[in-house]
Amino acid sequence: MVSSDKESLPPGYILHDGFPSVPEYVHLRSAAGLSPKTPSQAAAIPTGSWYFHIADMAVHPDHQKRGLGDAVLKALLAKIKQDAPADGEPYVSLLADGPGRPLYVKNGFVESAPESLGMILK
Question: Is residue 40 situated within a structural domain?
Fold first, then answer.
């Protein structure tokens, strides 16, 4: 993992590079109160959305309020910046479910409307 200010993690926690397994991912989204994903949707996350779109972040409720989400987000943003083309700033997007919005705002994300609007197909 890129340098991620490991001092900000509580004792006993380690950031790992990569993605959780599909069952872990599906369970974590559900436990954290995020919109559900099927196993087939979860399987596509690592191969289709690493660069410039943060597909999902979730911290299990038993481990929330310890700065873990902030540490993971900062590490992801550092990785994107490291791997982005040198010319210009990377365009980083995400869709924020209610529980994650304060974390994203704290880290510089702003609503994109009216310039752009996130949309989903129902």
Answer: yes
